[in-house]
Amino acid sequence: MKQQSLVTQFRMTLVYIILSTLFVSMITYAAAAFLFVNALNKKSINPENHYEQQIPKVENYVHEEGAAVLSSRGQDKLKELVHGEGFFYQAADHSGNIMHGTYEEQIFDSQQKLYQRLNTTFHIKGFYVHVIPVIDHMGKINGAVSLVYKLNLPAVNNSSLWVSIASLFLISAPFFYMILFTILFSRNYAKKISHPLQVLADGSRQIKMKNLDFDIDYHAENELGELCTAFNEMKEELKQSLSAQWKLEQDRVEITEALAHDLKSPLSIIKAYSEALSDDTDVDEEQKQYLTVIEENIEKSVLLVNQMQYTSELESSGAGVVKGPVNLLEFLQRKIYDYDLQARRKNIKMILEIRNDEIPDTVITDVNKLERILDNILSNSLQYTPAGGKIRIFVKKHNQFIVYRISDTGMGFTSMDMEKAFERFYRGDEARQSQGGHSGLGLYIVKQLSELLGGSVKIENLSSGGACVSFSHSWQ
User: Fold this and answer.
1) What stretches pass through the bilayer (predicted)?
2) Prediction pTM value
């Protein structure tokens, strides 16, 4: 069926269900007919007209006894001849009045109606009624004996339970077979459809896990086969596209590393010569000022080169995490002390708030990466916080994470910053750039390192004004 379309397969499945239902139903009816005939021959069950076959025997008795059948003596004999859950009698006089019998509802309410029904069979309230005239020895009609009976298997077999069940089964057999074969064939049909769908789902999961070295092993000349073939082709195109993209990315990383490495040497030479001029040469104040500007910009350039080199290392090798124990309180106090001189030069107050009751005495983390995260955030805050401002570092423990919230009283983030601040080489708007050049790698590095340490990072603006950077890392 792999060579057939899904519509054709569905139609064939429907045909198989109908044909199988008809075939098995015919076998069932044939078997039931055979068993029924065999049971009749062995007298195991009575035929539907069993009670009707007893009528001649009762007629002979009525004709022989005559008017005596209306008496109590005739009552006992009639009860003996007419018995069964679906077989009754009623003896009535010539006016239709009930004398005795097992059928209690009066059949005739007048002599005329009784005479009209003599030696006839009619239907009343689900029963057949055969009327036998009672004639005395003078040939006069004294009344009638009415035989009331049913013509169906349960009635003639005293409502045998197995007969009722068999009859019900024969009626419902086609519906039962229809349901059964629908389940069987539809399951088979669904299996043929679900297999390629499962293969496609597995392929999608492989792509999600960035694995393109797999093949969709399903081939058929139908819609699903075409879909699998198209999926394979898409995967190959994606593989080629990503391979080219990955190669370009690798080339970019290598070029960045090479550029950063090559820039270090000339920058070191320039720095050495500028220091030599400052220390060993008589220069006037204006020249000294020029040398100071040169040295400051060399320091900035070296910092930018180091950031570029570190970013390349992150992207190329993942910068493996080396965790170890660290006293977080002592570490943060030392880090604040390192930036205290730079903050005091701008009259910026740095405030460290730690919930000591929540922070563990010892935290297990990569202290070098944590220090680099804080250096990037604090240096940005110091750069963009105006003189006389504040920088607040708030630290707390939340579940399995240490959460840091570093806020300042600067200009805050623009809407473009909020959208692109974590992108590589994003440098912000002109207003922020005018306060000092930067590589646009600071928050990008913060994001990469926070995720390496099992945490995350986000930025926001405070309602009172100023920027806020929050990041977290696991503490064990």
Assistant:
1) 12-37, 161-185
2) 0.45
